[in-house]
């Protein structure tokens, strides 16, 4: 092998540093058994020069070192060639095939505008592999090239490679570690050179779908000039792509499809895919609004549901509602799909398909995309793979160029982290789009993994129709103004193929416009929705005070308590866990009062015993961040988990408890999506510390607290947010109670701060049993989990009553009280201890366990005995500008007697939630407790 050949080999992409470990492993495998590697690699390794004095039996570490030294100095003169010229040429042909599989996409014809400046890829040139024009007529073995023949002339091999990998589809998949997946993709792509086999009728249907995509945008532009619609123009192929995707999914057995997308093209998808009545859309443009629908939302945020006829039966479609926060809808979609496949008992995801549609800048720029990809193969969040479509406008949000929006060649490179194959496709070639769509869906259904379609297109207008894009993109928009729309390009192709007559092409345009004029549904596949597997009707139109079964027979509760405090003799628990379960058995037997962890466990036991499903996720939630839950007992001999809650009764409801990935935003969005699709499951997300909910604030603001008002979407998601000032510093004290209270309005959520095990038992049970589905936000405890006073009896649990307010429970005569302290949460126990220590009999303490909806009637009833009191105090641990004071003081003032005063007692306003020094914290806590009780402070 001469010096030039050696240098070319060393510089080829398959020997890039990123592949070194993989290649070394292959070489080890080859040394053990040459037949164990595929044809290309075996030929390559066979062609490797022999190193003097080294046989194949030599330790591979020596050979590897030899490779490294050779790579450093390709001119080392001890290398000799032992192969004949024809063998070397054969190897070079196989290298050429591999190069096209790795890098052909870099020379693919992907940009409809022809503006991409593709860098030269020398690996794709014949000369790079020491092949010349003289070799084109020579016949070579094609290796694993899926062309149906063992040998072909080089010119045919080369032309098939160019057609397959450098046409309108640019496929990236060679980074996949699964040989089966790579082989499958090679077979699908190479066997037809990325060309779909479409009949004339299919081509005409495809043309009509492009007519619809273009026709709706032009109709809206003429009927509502200047109105924002976030036009699809330029990316018209999205409509036939989606329709083909849904049809093919239905043929393969899918029953439900959930779609998530941002603004671009949303109105077009609503009308031309989901079958929304155009007249309804026109009314929205005209500003008409049904006053019964809450505050509503702009039309390009709205969702929709319908049925879509396919050869495999009707498929239920749901387009998810979403806010302007772009990519955040994607984990919501995945959560909704997970709920559907759980309900259908379909763990591999065959029966429900998530489709997420991204913008090119958003998929590269939004961190939640990485989080969502990371969820895709985990136990708690897998959905059998998501088909991800990028509407790639080649320009950022308003004016940005790609070099300002990402640090990678493609916007889709983020998908490589989960080894999702990526199909870049030129949107002006609709048949290539259909081919890429079919391969992508088939890959997802076979391998149950994510797959990405990068629809490379353009944006005919600015970010919105009032924008002037040529101000910042002059060259691109000069080209766009002259560029024919996809419908025109495809019409000319079909006319030239004698598939479509020119007058028929024009007639299709007229017929579509006429259908829009009539305002009726324009989607042939649309079907009215049939009843599906979940029925929301029992949960509609209820108020907070709706009656439900509350009390539980004490004997039933004791039975449940014993069942979840035991485990088989074959399970060997860790010593501390064993002690916890021994204590629980004593609690079940009435020997001890119940602590927090056991009361919560009993709530779940009661629910599953009555057929309710439970889903609990969060970081360390199986054990509990504070070593309190221990839903699983891990056998110390086998590490196998045993969950007593799964063994409550034979026909119990299913309970799933998963330790989540280290994410808040995507995980909470996923759980929101799950809860909006499954009202019969108690869905709970627990933050490791309440502060961590900060990372999911967009979900809380734009979905959880406002989804019902904007979109009419009910959701029974429960958030457990550990909260309490215990000297753990600014980041582990506050769950930001004030933020939730600020968002409270329209009876949208419940905000509770329970202080006893009986309260948490009945609060959780109420959330599941009461036929109303609104979010429950719980400021859950930390130190109270083991506080000696925070205990309850089985009888207290059996009442089934969650008390929104708990009045004075100690022997404090109401007529002697001249000061009433109102509070929530852990500070109650500090106040109570200080009152007892100082033998105060003139101060009553009232706990408000539910801050929203504020329990006005319950407070009025308790306050009846304190009408003579003039001094009322609201005491909180949080700084004055945080906690409940600013958002709830008007409620406190409303319940105290006329003429009395209300004083704030707590920490001073602060930009930080808490101090970082334990001594300072302790002094602050002592001072605020003493001040609330009317005692002297230091």
TrEMBL record:
| InterPro entries noted in UniProt | 2-oxogl_dehyd_N, 2oxoglutarate_DH_E1, DH_E1, KGD_C_sf, ODO-1/KGD_C, THDP-binding, Transketolase-like_Pyr-bd
A single Gene Ontology MF term assigned here is: oxoglutarate dehydrogenase (succinyl-transferring) activity
Q: Which UniProt keywords apply?
A: Oxidoreductase, Thiamine pyrophosphate
Q: What does this protein do?
A: E1 component of the 2-oxoglutarate dehydrogenase (OGDH) complex which catalyzes the decarboxylation of 2-oxoglutarate, the first step in the conversion of 2-oxoglutarate to succinyl-CoA and CO(2).
The coenzyme or cofactor needed here is: thiamine diphosphate
State what protein this is by name: oxoglutarate dehydrogenase (succinyl-transferring)
Organismal lineage: Bacteria, Pseudomonadati, Pseudomonadota, Gammaproteobacteria, Alteromonadales
User: Keyword Oxidoreductase, does the record have it?
Assistant: yes
Which family is this sequence assigned to? Belongs to the alpha-ketoglutarate dehydrogenase family.
Q: Which Pfam families match?
A: 2-oxogl_dehyd_N (PF16078), E1_dh (PF00676), OxoGdeHyase_C (PF16870), Transket_pyr (PF02779)
Known EC number(s)?
1.2.4.2
Can you tell which superkingdom this protein's organism belongs to?
Bacteria
Q: Where is the Transketolase-like pyrimidine-binding domain?
A: 594-787
Keyword Oxidoreductase included in the entry's annotation: yes
- Top-level EC class: oxidoreductase
């Amino acid at each position: 092998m001469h010096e030039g050949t050696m240098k070319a080999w060393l510089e080829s992409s398959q020997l890039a540093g990123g592949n070194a470990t993989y290649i070394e492993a292959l070489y080890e495998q080859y040394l053990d058994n040459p037949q164990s590697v595929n044809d290309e690699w075996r030929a390559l390794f066979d062609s490797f020069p022999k190193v003097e004095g080294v046989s194949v039996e030599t330790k591979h570490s020596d050979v590897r070192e030899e490779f490294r030294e050779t790579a450093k100095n390709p001119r080392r003169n001890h290398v000799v060639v032992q192969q004949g010229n024809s063998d070397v040429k054969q190897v070079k042909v196989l290298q050429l095939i591999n190069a096209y599989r790795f890098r052909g996409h870099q020379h693919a014809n992907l940009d409809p505008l022809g503006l991409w400046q593709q860098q030269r890829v020398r690996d794709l040139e014949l000369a790079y592999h020491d092949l010349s024009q003289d070799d084109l007529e020579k016949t070579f073995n094609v290796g694993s090239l899926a062309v149906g023949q063992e040998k072909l002339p080089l010119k045919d091999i080369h032309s098939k490679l160019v057609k397959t990998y450098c046409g309108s589809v640019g496929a990236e998949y060679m980074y996949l570690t699964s040989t089966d997946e790579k082989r499958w993709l090679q077979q699908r792509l190479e066997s037809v050179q990325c060309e779909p086999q479409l009949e004339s009728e299919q081509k005409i249907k495809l043309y009509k779908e492009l007519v619809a995509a273009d026709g709706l945008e032009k109709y809206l532009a003429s009927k509502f000039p200047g109105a924002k619609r976030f036009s699809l123009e330029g990316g018209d192929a999205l409509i036939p792509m989606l329709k083909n995707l849904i049809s093919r999914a239905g043929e393969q057995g899918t029953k439900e499809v959930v779609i998530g997308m941002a603004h671009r093209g949303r109105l077009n998808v609503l009308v031309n895919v989901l079958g929304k009545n155009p007249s309804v859309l026109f009314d929205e443009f005209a500003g008409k609004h049904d006053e019964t629908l809450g505050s509503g939302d702009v039309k390009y945020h709205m969702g929709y549901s319908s049925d879509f006829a396919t050869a495999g039966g009707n498929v239920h479609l749901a387009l998810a509602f979403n806010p302007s926060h772009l990519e955040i809808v994607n984990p919501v979609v995945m959560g909704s799909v997970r709920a559907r496949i759980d309900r259908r008992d379909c763990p591999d995801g065959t029966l429900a398909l998530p489709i997420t549609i991204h913008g090119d800048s958003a998929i590269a720029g939004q961190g939640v995309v990485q989080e969502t990809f990371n969820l895709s193969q985990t136990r708690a969040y897998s959905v059998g793979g998501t088909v991800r479509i990028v509407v790639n406008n080649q320009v950022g949000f308003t004016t940005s160029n790609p070099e300002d929006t990402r640090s990678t060649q493609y916007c889709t490179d983020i998908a490589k982290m989960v080894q999702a194959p990526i199909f870049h496709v030129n949107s002006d070639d609709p048949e290539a789009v259909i081919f890429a769509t079919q391969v992508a869906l088939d890959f997802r259904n076979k391998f149950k993994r994510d797959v990405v379609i990068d629809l490379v297109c353009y944006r005919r207008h600015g970010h919105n129709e009032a924008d002037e894009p040529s101000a910042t993109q002059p060259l691109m928009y000069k080209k766009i103004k002259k560029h024919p729309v996809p419908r025109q390009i495809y019409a000319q192709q079909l006319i030239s193929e004698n598939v479509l007559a020119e007058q028929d092409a024009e007639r299709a345009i007229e017929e579509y416009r006429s259908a829009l004029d009539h305002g009726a549904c324009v989607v042939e596949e649309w079907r009215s929705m049939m009843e599906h597997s979940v029925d929301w009707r029992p949960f509609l139109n209820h108020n907070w005070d709706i009656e439900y079964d509350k009390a539980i027979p004490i004997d039933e509760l004791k039975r449940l308590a014993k069942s979840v405090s035991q485990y088989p003799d074959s399970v060997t628990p860790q010593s501390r866990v064993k002690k916890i379960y021994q204590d629980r058995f004593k609690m079940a037997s009435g020997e001890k009062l119940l602590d927090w962890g056991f009361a919560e466990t009993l709530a779940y036991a009661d629910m599953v015993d009555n057929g309710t499903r439970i889903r609990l996720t969060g970081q360390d939630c199986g054990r509990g961040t504070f070593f309190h839950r221990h839903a699983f007992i891990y056998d110390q001999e086998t590490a196998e988990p045993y969950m007593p809650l799964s063994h409550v009764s034979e026909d119990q409801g299913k309970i799933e408890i998963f330790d989540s990935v280290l994410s808040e935003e995507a995980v909470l969005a996923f759980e929101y999506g799950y809860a909006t699709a499954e009202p019969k499951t108690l869905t709970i997300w627990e933050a490791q510390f309440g502060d961590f909910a900060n990372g999911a604030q967009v979900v809380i603001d734009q979905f959880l607290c406002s989804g019902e008002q904007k979109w009419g979407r009910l959701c029974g998601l429960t958030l457990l947010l550990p909260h309490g000032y215990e000297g753990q510093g600014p980041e582990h004290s506050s769950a930001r109670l004030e933020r939730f209270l600020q968002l409270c309005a329209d009876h949208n959520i419940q905000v509770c701060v329970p202080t006893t095990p009986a309260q948490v038992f009945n609060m959780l049970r109420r959330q599941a049993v009461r036929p109303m589905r609104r979010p429950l936000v719980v400021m859950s405890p930390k130190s109270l989990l083991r506080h000696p006073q925070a205990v309850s009896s089985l009888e207290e649990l059996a009442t089934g009553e969650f008390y929104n307010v708990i009045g004075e429970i100690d022997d404090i005569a109401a007529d002697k009280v001249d000061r009433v302290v109102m509070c929530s949460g852990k500070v109650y126990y500090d106040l109570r201890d200080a009152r007892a220590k100082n033998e105060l009999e003139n101060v009553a303490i009232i706990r408000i366990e539910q801050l929203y909806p504020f329990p006005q009637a319950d407070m009025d009833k308790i306050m009846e005995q304190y009408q003579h009191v003039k001094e009322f105090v609201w005491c909180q641990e949080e700084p004055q500008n945080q906690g409940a004071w600013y958002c709830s003081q008007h409620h406190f003032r409303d319940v105290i007697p006329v003429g009395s005063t209300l004083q704030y007692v707590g920490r001073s306003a602060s930009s930080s939630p808490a101090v970082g020094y334990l001594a300072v914290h302790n002094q602050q806590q002592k001072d605020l407790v003493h001040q609330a009780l009317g005692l002297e402070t230091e």
